[in-house]
Prior knowledge:
Layout: E1 6-7, E2 14-15, H1 16-25, H2 31-39, E3 43-46, E4 52-58, E5 63-69, E6 76-81
Antiparallel strand pairs: 1-2, 3-4, 4-5, 5-6
Amino acid sequence: xxxxxxxxxxxxxxxxxxxxxxxxxxxxxxxxxxxxxxxxxxxxxxxxxxxxxxxxxxxxxxxxxxxxxxxxxxxxxxxxxxxxxxx
Length: 87
């Protein structure tokens, strides 16, 4: 059975919220960079609720991105520049 709130690749597993609310409002986000950060994050933090925060550098934005995954560890829920992150 498929989760109706989860959309399959390409480019990666993502929540409907990310696909229909986040990406349209943030056209500067590059799905290829998000996919790279999910595959090889610079930092990975598991939150108490099970969601996962990943950080990686975006060459196109010239900043670090935070990519938030659902508790399954693969579905992208959100992504945004994170100026508070320091490597």
